[in-house]
Every structure is written in structure tokens, then in C-alpha cells.
Design goal:
The chain has 1003 residues and is of the alpha/beta class. It folds into five domains: 4-64 and 108-153 and 979-992, no CATH class; 160-274, Immunoglobulin-like (Sandwich); 323-463, Elongation Factor Tu (Ef-tu), domain 3; 467-483 and 490-733, P-loop containing nucleotide triphosphate hydrolases (Rossmann fold, 3-Layer(aba) Sandwich), CATH 3.40.50; 741-962, 3-Layer(aba) Sandwich (Rossmann fold). It is built from 35 helices and 40 strands. Strands 16, 17, 18, 19, 20, 21, 22 and 23 form an eight-stranded mixed β-sheet that branches. Strands 26-27-25-28-29-24-30 form a seven-stranded parallel β-sheet, sandwiched between helices. Strand 26, helix 20 and strand 27 (632-636) form a beta-alpha-beta unit. It is an enzyme of class 3 (hydrolase). Belongs to the DNA2/NAM7 helicase family. SDE3 subfamily. This is RNA helicase.
Amino acid sequence: MVSNVFLNFCPGVLYSGKCQETNCTLQHDAKLCELCGVICTPVSIYNSHIKGKPHRDILAANSSWLRCPLCDIRVNSEVVWRSHVSGAGHRKAAAERSMSADVQPVGGKYVPDNAKRCVLCQRNIPRESWTSHVGGQDHKRHEYNAAYKAAYEQAANDKEGVTVSYSEGVIDFGVLSAEQGRVGLHKEVIIRTVTASRQISVVRTTASATSSSSTCRFSTILPVPCRLVHGKDTTLMVVFRHTQAGRYEGRIEIEFKDERRRFLVVRQVRATIGNAADHKALKPSAPYTRPKRVQWRKAQRYYLGHRPPMLDAVPWIKKLRTYEVSARLSDLLSKGATVDSLECIRTQLLPRVFNSSTHGLHFKTLLWCEEYRLEQDLRMYDLGDVTFKKEGNLYYLVVPGLAEKRPSVVVGDRVEVQSSGSTADSCYVGWVHVVRREDVGVGFHPSFKPSASQRFNVRFALNRVPLRRQHQALGQLVANAERFLFPQKVHAGLSRAPTATDLNIVIFNPRVATNQAQLQAVRSILQMRTGAAPFIIYGPPGTGKTVTIVEAIRQILSRDPDARILACAPSNSAADEIARRLTDIDTDTMFRFNAVSRDRSHVHAEVLPYTYTNVRGDFSVPELEKLLKFSLIISTCGSASFAFGIGVPPGHFGHIFVDEAGQATEAEAMTAIKPLAVPTTKIVLSGDPKQLGPIIKSSIARELNFGKSYLERLMEMELYNGANARGISMMKLVQSFRSHEAILNYPNEQFYQNELIACGNPSIINSLLGSPQLVSPKFPVVFHAVAGRDEREASSPSYFNVDEISLVKEYVTNLKADRGRPIEDEHIGVIAPYNAQVRKLRRALSEVAGGAKIASVEEFQGQERRIIILSTVRSSRDLLAYDAKYTLGFVSNPRRFNVAVTRAQALLVVVGDPAVLSLDPLWRRFLNYIHNHGGWRGDPITWDPYAPVRDDTDYAQEAREQAMAFMSDLMQRVETDATDNDMTAPDYMEGQANMDIVTGDVE
């Protein structure tokens, strides 16, 4: 291991060029290249670094130069940038164009005056926090990595008159088939000496993996010692032999010896086992670049276009206020998601006491935090320098990513437009009338008459209507709200769980009749007293919570012809599912309300007869008198307050059901409850707090528990806890009708106290036993270990992994080819946590299984498939940067994990990188479970699968420590090669040109 002194660089020398401490004991013999993000230690190797190809390539790309959009000149550092924008020439250029002199640079990273840029961590650091930042462990880790990169670069240089081929690249075997890997391939590395006067010999050649936990798949062939002869080539054979899919990287070390010293030359080597055609077809379309912010002028005049008629399809009679965020909260949010902002919101803006009286203000504040983040996120989709094409009365705009819902645009959305490069203070506001696959048709003011070549900046406005309806609901005053907001034991709906003696019922669904938990839940709902707390149906995966809800609705309607029920769910698909299960009810009894913006083609054919459209074909509502006659109305939670908005009186609905309530924010749930509930309204919630909760974009809102659903908050209360609560205030369903026991066992143990009982149909759950795709014929869970690469492309921040896509395609192909176990497309579900992976998988599987459902985890909640293949995507070889949160990303979320692994009925296949997944204790235990039951395929496990897994163990830190120890071996060997020659003046000046000091002029 390298000594601590070696790691403890002096921050003064490294980042300011001079140490201010008289008795400093830290490492001074080091120099930072800001351009490349490497630390050269000793300083003597800096000279070699700036002459090297990696540095020259980055310098040639001008990636560190900042361009002034007003003056169209470039400067080579933030310091020079600040000097430029304060100069008379810049101010004059701004005045001539009637624009503000306060502009942002184009290219590079702009650093505010109150911050410093840490080039190693790629972050702007407040100046007051700089000292603590550079002394922190995370920064020290980046310093070590930067030093290693410089050491490796030094080791890769030819030296002492010896040249080794592949000096400016990698020994790359390319993409090989498993058969080619089985046979083995070799590459020739040519070694030459340019001097005849020295006796130089190769004394050692070794091949090693890039980490201590990996097995090296490369080897070298060269008898040693081997003396080099001037004018004659010496050939080193590098051999790769392996059959498992994945990417393999290694290092070839060649040690030389002459009369004076030993020295080392290294080369990188890599190979990929996979499908070459897939790698070619699915590679990044363009290198990933973060989208640039489109400049936007503050407008003084707005020209409003014409709204689509469908926006007026519902006859609202209740005025909906705007509910604008307060100036104080807006100011705090504009400062970013800082600890100070969070604390100010918590202590100054949130009510000090959280109770029925302050509930509305509490959640309004969190809702505003979320709205601010949603607005900021939309800015990444702003378009610059675009054109419009006129078709009829509309102007069409091509929107990149529209087909993938990036951004998600629907009819009725608002679009704001400014002339690109103009100084005008006007803004055109249009409304989307048409959404096609790649473009949208917008209706503008008659004065909007662009030429075909005229260019504009465009931004999409956040649709605030759903948020305003939530604010409206939160502000409603409801009598006896305590019983559903903060229920106590006194609010329990029953004194004891009812039995068959208390209530004899004729069940509509035969499945419910044989399921005691479901039957108990239905009896309890029917026997609920008025003024009771909400009754909760706790439904783990596959236990039939929606079946139970539907049965309860049927029972209520059959017993009371005058009953009025509102049934809601957070999503359209979940609301449609309730309606589909009740389509034997006539259309005069049930009404499915849809938002006016919903695409008619997305509504299931069975549900359409229960909807209402106006003469233009827009979704709408019948007249109030007819609406009040429906016994059952179904909608999403967000749209549920439509009834209040068109005049349905509070108390009209005797029952309000919210299915999948765990996926809704409390503000969304209240939209269905507060405007319409009275003390006699009975409320029933169903869901699973262990599965996906609401999606919250704002980190501040998440920290303040906006991500905790109404269902989850209630279930933490005493009323819903303990064995005595069952049948009185809640019911936990325990018979799981979905999965084979082997698939259910692990999530059952981790999330459900081993209470779930596998009760699936044997003809389905056992249908893949004995399949050739299984590792163990009686264990229908497979983990396929593959070390791939997560990549991004163009302006999309979403990850994809071609290596995993190829494996998923192979599994699907083989499963469909198995004639002994016929599999149709609709039996297959493929889950990936990233949209980019979903898009690439759909493309790769379009001809193999075009009818298979391929979607994100969120889209699979509440669904099941006979076969589920899960691609986890994340894979990284940067061991020093390993972090359980950031390296795993979405994959590390326990609820997302639970949903993903509980969708399968008969076969679960997980494809992923075990080195990354094992950083998370939940995943590590799961991989151990699969391995120890014989389901592991691919490269062998690299840790002890029988060792206890502890939640408080930082496995990422262990990986980093192993990586540091492994890399320090090379760094120590390379240290002996560093020359003691001083830099020449020209060399020093060339290096200084890349440092953040005021020496450069504008280009």
C-alpha cells in the first residue's frame, strides 16, 4: 500500500500553486493538470504528461475554452472569463445589441463568483466550504484516482530507447463470439530497441485483471529473460481465452532491465464476448453531452394563441384559483437543494405542529417544492434555434425525444416562443392542438407569421392544472377530518372483526369465497360504521387487492340500489383495470371519467362504452342531473375532484375507494377525498407500502417526506398495527396467486415477515421447470452475471447496456424456440430501470418478440407475466468511484427491487453485473440466495455467498479499499521510473497554458 504521505497532497500547492503553511508536512512534490484531471507525482513526470497523446488530444478539442456568445471570442479559464465580462469591450458589445452584459459562457463550466470549481470532483464548491471539501474523504478518493491515472499514463510511455507497439491505443480483441473465445485468439505486440549500445532484456511479462476481485482472462507468451537486439523485432504474444458474455479488461506489464536499472512499460488490453451485430446496431448514436441551457429573455408582452376546444369540454362551475408559490419559498428554492434551504423551509415555512388544522398548509408547501423542481426539469427540453412549418392553421414543431415522452406533451399543453437572437421583449404563447410521433401542432396568435427559415427559442410550460386541483383539495375544510387524517383507536370502523355469523354474503367472485383474508376484508368494509377511519387492504404482490376492492364494490351496489361510490387509482391504467373488472355492470350504472387531454386510443375497448364524449369527440361529462344518477364513478386520483368542480355536492358519495393508494402522494389522495367527503363518507384504501411509492422529483420535498404516501403514513399509526387491527381497521392479504415459491421466497422474507403463501395455479407456476434456460431444473430463478458497460448517448442522461440487451435477446429467442414449453409474446415481460434501456430492448426484440411487454419497473406495478427478464443496466469498472447510491442508481431502491422481482409467475431471469449489485446489502443477499440454490450463471461469484450480509456494512468502501491497494502496487513500481530532470521553461509555459491563472489572452 502506498504510504499516507503519498496520498496527502498539499491543497495549497495542488490548487493554488503555493503553500502558505511554514511547517507543512503534506506532499508538495505533485502538480495538477486541470485540463486532464490528473495529478502528476513527482512533479518531474508533468513534463512527460503534457507531451503525451492523452493531454494533446484533450487540448486539441478545446474542451476547457469558454466562448462569449456576445463577442464570439474564447478565453482559456474562468479567471480570464471574469476579466473579459467586466471589460469595456464586452460591455460595449452588449450595449450595441441591447442585451445584458451578464451572459453565461458557452462551453466549459461556468463558476459563480462565490464558488470554486473542483476539477477532480466536477463540482462547484462554495468558497467558504473549499477547505473542508479538499480535506474530505470523497475528494481524497478523487485525488488518488487522479494520481493513479498519471502514474498509469507514465507507465504506458515508451522509454529508455525501447518502443512497444500499441503505444497510442489499446490492445483490443474486439467483439468475439463465445466459440471464438473458447478457441482463443492472440495479438502480437512488437518490442524494439532503438539503441545498439545498451544491453536491454525483457525480464518479466505478466497479464493481470483491472481489479483484485476479477480473474484475468488474458495471458502472455514470451520466454524470459529475452535480450532485445537492435534492428530486430521481439514479439510478445497476448492471448485471450474465455466463453462467458461480457467485457474484459486487463493490463499487460513488460519489465525491462539494462546495466543500470529496471523499468516498466504497460499496455491496456480488452476483449468482449457477445453479439457483434448487436454491439454495432445498438452502440451510442452520438457521444453523450449534457443539453445546453437555452437563453431566455424576460418578456414584457405576451401574444396568446388559440386554445384547443377540448379544454372547454367540461362545464366547470367552481373557480379554480392559481395558487402561486410565495416569494419567500420561491427565493429559497432558487438557491438550490442546499442544507440551508431545506432547514429554512422546515423551520420557517412548514407549520410547527402537524395536525388536522395544519395538514393543508404542510402539504401545500411540499407541493410547491415539487412544482418548482418539475418546472426546472422541463428546462432541459427547451429548444434553441428551431423552425416551424405551417400546416393549415397550425404551426408544427419537431420535438426530439417526443416518441419516448421526453418531453411528455399532450394536447392542451402550453408552448412559449421567442425569436432566436432578437432583442424583442415579446413572447408568443401557443397551445398544442395535435401531437404526432415526432412533432406537435401549435395554435398561435394571428400575428405569428414566421418565415420558413426564421429561428426561435421554445420552452414547454408546466401544466399546473393538476397541481392547482391538489391545492384546491388541500384547502377544503372538512368536518371531523381528524378521523381520516390522524385517526385514533376511537375512530376504528369496527369493535371486532365480523364473522360469517354476523354477515352472511353471497360472493360474486368464487376466488374470494375460498380466501379467508379477502372475505374478511369484504365483510369488514360492509360493516364499517359511519364516521370511521379509513379501512386499509394491505395487499402484497399477487394477493388480489384489486379483486377484493371490486368484490366490495359489487356487494355494496347489490345491497343498496341508492349507493353512490367513487373509485379511484393514481394512474389511468389502474383506474381502467377497476372498470374492466366491472364491465358486466350496465352503462347507466357505471361512468369512467377521463381527463379531456387523454388520448382516446389509449383507453381499452372494454372501457370505452362507459366514457362520455361531446359532439367533437372530446372526453367530457354528461349533464349534472344524469351524472348524479350513476351508482359508480371511476377516475384517477388527480381527476377525481372533477365532481366537485362541476357541482357534485360533498357527501354525494357514500364510499370512496382508492386502489394502489401507495403510489399516490398524500396531496393526490386528498384530491379524491377532501372536496367530496363528509363525516358519513366511508373511505377504503388498498395498496402495499413495500412496493413503489409516488415519484418525487424534488430532493427537498423527498427529504420532507413528500414521498411517503397517505397509505404508508396511516399504516405507521397505532390503529393499523398489531394483530388486533386485522379485520377491524385493516386486513393483510397473504395468499399470493402469482409466483412459484422459489420466486416468492426472497421478497417474502425481506418484506413480508414470511407470511405470504404461494397459491398459484400449478399449471402456470411450474410450467418452466426443467427448461434448458434454468441452471437448476427445479429452481426457476436465474442470475446471469455479466460485466458490461453502462453508456449514454446524445443528450439523453438515461443509461443503457448493450451487453445485457444481447443476453436478454438470447434468453427470449431460446425460450420461444422451446417447442416442449410453448411460449407466446404475451407471456414475456422485460423490465429495465432506465428508459434508454427500454427503448434499445424494444428495438432489439422487435423481430424476436414484438408483442412482449418491455417497460420500466413503474409500468409493471400491478402486472404479471409468466416470464420476467430483468436487466439491471448499471455496470462500472471505476472501482474507486464505487458508491452504493450513485453507482447503482435506481436499482438500489428497495421498493423498485420488490416490484421488479415479484412480477414473474414461472420464471425470473436477472441479468446484471454482480460487482455493482453486490454493493447493496439487499441485492447481495438476493444474489447469495440464487447462488446457493443453484441458479447462478456466467462468471463465478467473487465473494463468500455463505457469509452473513449486514445492512450496516459499507461494501462500496470495501471495494474502494481493495481497488486502492491493487492500484498502489502499480504506482509504487512506476515511481522508480520517474525522472529527476527539471522542466524546461518552454515545457513549463505549455503546462501553465492549461492552468486556471491569468496568463492567457483571449483567442
